[in-house]
Amino acid sequence: MKEINYVHFIGIGGAGMSGLAKILIQTGTKVSGSDLSNSKYVERLTQMGAQIKIGHQEDNVPDICDLVVVSTAIPETNPEIRRSKDRNIRIIKRGKLLGELMKLQRGIAVAGAHGKTTTSSMIALVLEDAGYDPTIVVGGEVFNLCSNAKLGYGEYLVAEADESDGSFLELFPEIALVTNIEDDHLDHYGSMENIISSFQQFINQVPEGGTIFLGIDNEIVKRIKVPKGRNIKYYGLQENDSYVAKNIVFKATGSISDIYYENKFLGSLELTVAGKHNIINAMGALGVAMEVGISFEEASLVLKQFRGVERRFQLLGDQNNVKVVDDYAHHPTEIKATLEAARQSHEGRVVVVFQPHRYSRTKQLYQEFGNSFSDADLVIITDIYAAGEKAIPGISGELIYLEAKKSFPNKQVVYKEYNKLSDYLRKKTKSGDLILTLGAGDIWKKGKELVNNLGE
């Protein structure tokens, strides 16, 4: 990257793009960018010296730009892409830039359908606290670090590896961790076999002598073949010859479990983030930490202090004996895990407000979505958040609503348009409730509105 002096980011406001832009600024590279809307990431980068325009137009691309980085969400018809092509400026995707940065340090990459943001954040926090000074690029705001990225001067780069568009195949990490594999992003892959094949390729890109961690509780992960010359380690709740959690006790504030490695007791792990899935995430982080030379005792102390990641079971507010929590869950498996965590940590009524994300995902998984609310007392489904997709005739949030009504005839299941949610929630919320807003779109805004309304 030494020959690159000026980089322009199209779609700079996203969690992944903004993190890379921040790291380049910290290396002394000049950065400009554009996005459709302002955000805290845009404001932070502006304060660091980035020149950012709201909206996309040709003259946003500086004349002295060496490289243009685009997010997957940006179409080829974007005027800034057209301008860059006309001027023969090199254009690369976000994943390619991350791959170039990873070549400069020893890479640790976390991939998987669910849990990769939390697991990579846990790893980053443990290495940071242990003095390893890693470069960090994750897909969410890590509360303990108050950031989603930082330039480090140590040996390692810790990254979340995004499989949604296949860009994780730009990475060649020394240590790779796969949390799980599921039938998500079929709009990109076309079939489950193609998804598995891509994860297999990701694993194959770990060099000889490298280490691979696999989440053993996921049946599809078990189909991954480990290439020769790599160290393989498993982790999970199922019995295996690596990392296992046993004797789990759930508390209102998290959990305590006993951790074993190769059938030997390492010690107890206490977490202040809720859910069985976070115990599994923490075991993966423990494994990576111990692989790079950090003791179980040191790593577990840091993980006890881990306060989570933005939009991952994030407490938005606690007003009038009502807790409002937001989570990014946008796949049936994620919804089940989040609701299970809510049920384990809360004794009162659990109310879920789910905003489906993308028409293509809803079309593919509406039946599975409808079956995922067993741990909720009141289920509220709203409109689909398009995320740039065109509407598909006959596909709407009502499909999930009808499936949920069929699956849970004894539960209260309702469908409410997005713009009517605030009034409905204000009327239906009771003292002792836990309100969960779920989805990868903007449903969190309704959670914040409810907190404000409860405080009036």
What is the gist of this entry?
The protein is α/β, with parallel strands linked by helices. The protein is built from 14 helices and 21 strands.
Neighbour order of strands in the largest sheet = 8-7-9-6-10-11-12-13-14-15
**Whole-number count of domains:** 3
Shape: globular
Distance between the termini: 52 Å
Describe what this molecule looks like in 3D.
This protein is α/β, with parallel strands linked by helices and 456 residues long. It folds into three domains: 6-93, 3-Layer(aba) Sandwich (Rossmann fold), CATH 3.40.50.720; 105-304, Mur-like, catalytic domain (UDP-N-acetylmuramoyl-L-alanine:D-glutamate ligase); 314-455, Protein-Tyrosine Phosphatase, Chain A, CATH 3.90.190.20. The protein contains 14 helices and 21 strands. A ten-stranded mixed β-sheet has the order 8-7-9-6-10-11-12-13-14-15, with helices on both faces. Strands 16-17-21-18-19-20 form a six-stranded mixed β-sheet, sandwiched between helices. β19 (378-381), α12 and β20 form a beta-alpha-beta unit. α5 (116-129) crosses α8 and α11 runs parallel beside α12 (397-407). The longest helix is centred in the middle third of the chain and has 16 residues, at 276-291. It is globular and about 65 Å long. The model has no long low-confidence stretch (mean pLDDT 91).
